[in-house]
Amino acid sequence: MPTEIKIFDTTLRDGEQSPGCSMNLQEKLEIARQLERMRVDVIEAGFAVASPGDFAAVKAVAETVKNSVVASLSRALPKDIDHSWEAVKHAVSPRIHTFIASSPIHMQYKLRMEPEKVLEQAVEMVAYAKKYCSDVEFSAEDASRSEPEFLYRLFEGVIRAGATVVNVPDTVGYSTPWEISELIAEIRNHVPNIDKAEIAIHCHNDLGMAVANTLAAYRAGATQLECTINGIGERAGNAALEEIVMALETRRDFFDAAHSLDTTQIYRSSRLVSSLTGVQVQPNKAVVGANAFAHEAGIHQHGVLANKSTYEIMTPASIGLTSNRMVLGKHSGRHAFEDRLNAMGYHLDKMKLDEAFEQFKELADKKKLVEDEDIEALVQQKAVDIPESFQLQRFVVNSGNSITATAAVRVTQNGRDIEAVSTGDGPVDAGLNAVDKLVGMDFDLEDYVLRSVTKGKDAQGEVSVKIHKDGRRYSGRGLSTDVVEASIQAYLNAINKMLYERRDYEEETFDA
Ligand code: KIV
Ligand code: ZN
Description:
The protein is built from 18 helices and 16 strands. Helix content is 42%, strand content 21%. It is α/β, with parallel strands linked by helices. The protein binds 3-methyl-2-oxobutanoic acid and zinc ion (ZN).
């Protein structure tokens, strides 16, 4: 009998904690919808007590997602647990996740608490959470560097207090597959009531072993595997969902695991997270990198043409990477467009569909072949629309290798058209400088990435930017067959997000 496992995705919590990966509410909701579509078992939606923005996002995810458990992280403190419960209580399947550090180094220097006090607080807080929610996960932070004997007592205590899942985080990515495997086996041997809880594994990638450690833990008896899309997360990131699942899938013969994930949603999830966070996937990244299925060497190409299994251990189609092309052109009707969207798994409301169709028509005018990736990029942007304080109307640039670039940019702000002209070191710099003048602020541009959505000279360019203002980072995205336009759009998108977030949350903090 295959072993049933659960996939616990923490892209919205641990993933979002990584530098430059912060997302607004709409973006988190869109990712949550995609995780549900991919049939992830548990979605950790955030750390509700961290800020009003985090609270609102966890709550919105809890109220939207129906088919996955929705969890909120909390320190082992009543205030954190209260906020988590308030945020997830309307979920169909809510979970409170609480944690406290259990390693000597964390207890002594971070918590400044004696081990016995840590144990007492953990047990008390699990019991406290249990009053709210039947599903309570407990994590022993830095478990892999904890004294095993202490860990066994801690787990025994929290299980007795009602924990339904006990998590073993390799918080600093220090462990090896052999050690983690032994630790899980020993937990199973030494925690007398371990059969009353599920064992989870949560690995960080500081030494590049997060996925290997997760799989080793599974082989030793962990059945909830914690991970993030594209492996984003603190420092070197978390174990990558797509690598864990495709390893289990491709090596069924070895792992014999049963999971409920729809692997054909993996590629789309990866693209969505990458475009919403602005964090690019390295080309040689396993499973979802641009080169993961590219066979460059002649000898490989020859083999693959003769028989795919010579060099291909999994198919692109198994992760949803198809070469399907939209056969619609500029004369295609709305119905055909909607049918194609539905076939791709997108269901837009009437207003968004109308807008997307308009944009599709404009694109079909400029581009000969509109491919699924084009439609996907367009629809993803629609799904995370925020109010546009500044809306691009038009721009003109004058540039060349022997003149100073100038740009005139016109935007609408509160129904009023305003225009500014600026020079710059090239057309993009000139365009962004003109936007700074319009907005009346200066921003640090921390990151700028341009990628083409598809192949071909007439491809759409997708620009991702990160701007920095008053200690906070905002990402923005723009899409156009004209890269200067995509750049201005991305910059304005980041500015609009900043204004939107400031308006909602500037004054409030929970003092976490
Ligand atoms: O890495 C870690 O220890 C964590 C816990 C809070 C689960 O993310
Ligand atoms: Zn973590």
